[in-house]
Design a protein that fits this description.
Number of helices: 10
Distance between the termini: 18 Å
Shape: globular
Helix content: 40-55%
Radius of gyration: 16 Å
CATH architecture: 3-Layer(aba) Sandwich
Largest sheet: 6 strands, parallel
Number of strands: 6
CATH class: Alpha Beta
C-alpha cells in the first residue's frame, strides 16, 4: 500500500529550486517532491492562490524564508489541504518600516541595473559568519538570482513588504509542524523561530548549529535529517 505524501517546497526571496537541491533526495523517499513557482505575482494572496491551483489535493508543505510567508498564506486560504507544515528560517511578523525602506532601496537599484550589487548586499545576511568567504555559496546566490531575474525579484519584494502579520493565526495551525532555523541567522534571528514554535500547538523547534539563513546548502545532512523526521512522524 502506498502511504506516500506529496511534498511541496516553497523557496525564499531571490531563491530558486536550487536551494532545495541538497535535501530533495532525502525527501523524495517519502513522496513526490514539487518546488513551487513563487515569482509570478506581487502579493501573497495571488502567489498562494496560484501555487494552490497547481498543487496536489493534499500535501506536506515546507516554506523557506519568504516561502514561510507564502506558507502562512496557504494555511489561511486552504488549511485542509496541508497535512504537515515546516517553517524554515522564517518568521510570522510583518515587515518593519526599516526593512521596507531597505527593500525599496533594493528595488530601485534592481530597476537601475544594479541587481548583482543587490545580491552582494544580501549575501552576508544569508550565510553563517564563518562562510562569508565561501565562493560556492556566493555563486549559488548569483545562480539563483539569475534564475529569478530582476523583474521577479521586484515582484517578490513588493509581496514581502505587504505581507500580513501571521502571529494572530499561529494558534489555528493544527497539523504537525516543524520550525527549523540556524543558530546564527543574520536575516531572521532564531528568536523569531522560537516565537512561532511557542505559538503553534505542538510545534517542534530545531536549531541547527554552525548555520545561517540557508540551512539546505550550509548544513545539508542535518537539514535533511530534520525534514525527514518531520515527514516520518
Amino acid at each position: 500500500m502506498d502511504n506516500s505524501m506529496p511534498i511541496l517546497l516553497v523557496p525564499g526571496l531571490v531563491s530558486s529550486p536550487r536551494i532545495f537541491a541538497p535535501v530533495i533526495p532525502a525527501l523524495w523517499r517519502f513522496g513526490p517532491v514539487t518546488v513551487a513557482n513563487h515569482i509570478r505575482d506581487d502579493n501573497m494572496g495571488a502567489i498562494a492562490r496560484r501555487i494552490l491551483a497547481e498543487a496536489p489535493p493534499r500535501f506536506a508543505l515546507a516554506g523557506h524564508s519568504m516561502g514561510g510567508y507564502i506558507a502562512f498564506e496557504i494555511m489561511r486560504q486552504a488549511p485542509e489541504r496541508v497535512a504537515k507544515l515546516a517553517l524554515i528560517n522564517t518568521q510570522a511578523r510583518p515587515d518593519t518600516p526599516e526593512a521596507s525602506t531597505r527593500r525599496r532601496g533594493m528595488i530601485e537599484r534592481a530597476r537601475g541595473g544594479d541587481y548583482r550589487g543587490v545580491l552582494d548586499e544580501l549575501f552576508p545576511g544569508f550565510v553563517h559568519p564563518s562562510r562569508l568567504a565561501d565562493a560556492s555559496l556566493r555563486q549559488l546566490v548569483y545562480d539563483m538570482g539569475a534564475d529569478v531575474g530582476a523583474e521577479a525579484f521586484i515582484r517578490q519584494q513588493m509581496a514581502v513588504m505587504s505581507r500580513p502579520d501571521s502571529r494572530p493565526t499561529l494558534a489555528w495551525i493544527r497539523c504537525p509542524t516543524l520550525v527549523l532555523t540556524g543558530d546564527e541567522d543574520n536575516t531572521i534571528p532564531n528568536a523569531l523561530s522560537s516565537e512561532m514554535a511557542n505559538g503553534i500547538p505542538g510545534a517542534k523547534l530545531v536549531i541547527l548549529p554552525n548555520c545561517g539563513h540557508l540551512p539546505q546548502p550550509e548544513q545539508p545532512e542535518a537539514c535533511a535529517d530534520a525534514l525527514a523526521d518531520w515527514l516520518r512522524n
